Structures are given as C-alpha cells and as structure tokens.
Amino acid sequence: MILVVTAVAAERDAVLAGVRASPRPDSVDVLVGGVGAAAAAARTATALCGVPYRQIVSAGIGGGFSGRADIGDVALATRSIAADLGAESAEGFLSIAELGFGVDGHDADADLLGALRAALPGAAVGAVLTVATVTGSAARAQGLAARHPTAVAEAMEGYGVATAAAGVGVPFAEIRTISNLVGPRDRAAWRIGAALEALTRIGAALATLDG
Predict the structure, then answer these.
(1) Which of 11, 29, 73, 101 is the most exposed place for a label (fewest CB within 10 A)?
(2) Alpha-carbon dihedral sign for residues 170, 127, 116, 32
C-alpha cells in the first residue's frame, strides 16, 4: 500500500477523490500531515509505526520556478531539498550539509520516480525545494533558482516526509501541482482550484502503481 502525505485537508480530499474513483481504491492511504517539514515528518513517522507501507509520497500544491514549471504543471522531485535550513554567512547561505550537521536533501527512489514519470507524462522533473517561509519576492526567487539550478518547484513538506521515509527505509517520492509561480505574492494569479483538480488525477494515477 502507498501512503500519500498532504499538508491540508483540501489536498487530501482532492487526492482521495481520484483514488476512490479508481479500480483499486484500497491501494492508497492519504494522511494530512500538517503544514511545514516538522509537522509532516512527525505525522509520517507516527503513521509508519502502524502500517507496513511499501511506498510514501509527499503530494500537494506548490509554486513553480519560472521557465522550469508553469502554472497547471505537475512537478516530480528528483530530490527533496531543505533549501533554507542552515546558516547565513558573508559568503552566502550554508546548508546543514555544508555546516556538517546532517543531510540537506533526500533523493526520490529511482524505481518509484520512474513509475511516476510513466504514469504522469509531461511532468516537469527536477529538485523540489522545501522551505519554512514561502518565497514572496523576486530577489529570493532568483537566489533560490541560482543556488538550485535543477529546482522546478518549492513547497513546505517534502523534506520532512522524506526524512521519515528514509528513517525506516521506505521508498519515497514527492509530487507537486503548480498553482503559482515562485516570486512576488500575487493571489489573484494563483490557480489553486486547477492545482487541486490535478491532484485528483494524481490520486487516480497513484492507485495504479501499488501491486
């Protein structure tokens, strides 16, 4: 069985709509993990204590980096990176890996990512950044894009879910549907409804993977 972890109930409900409409509605569990990496890691770790899940997917809406993932796209993570967990320095940002304090990202499981790419053709593929503070300025968007040239999207939970999955050796992947571009906040331009509809299609696709 696959465990899908979302941040909020609206994302869970969107994924579940696709799962329940599939021929295998019992193949996927969907959990609301909470907003942010810490909440997501804690709830995922708790869930893993009770059920022997075969795969774990962090899923939800997110922001896309201009020129790499457009509004309405699906983004698949090759790696989930803790993009603002570290320290500032005169030379720039230092990740926790550069500081020697731990791992600053987790790669998606190669087999699971391959299956998702086959099930979701046309998806943007690259790193997905996990941030504690959503980007709201052009300067920060440009800085993150320069520091992470393979990044296609940012969200707030992937690294936390990945950390819990890595702790028990369960294959992990992250999926984001793009509701807005990373940069200055422009709520009028966000397409949250369309991103949630895309999550429903993802739920149906995920239900074909397990087994």
Answers:
(1) 101
(2) positive
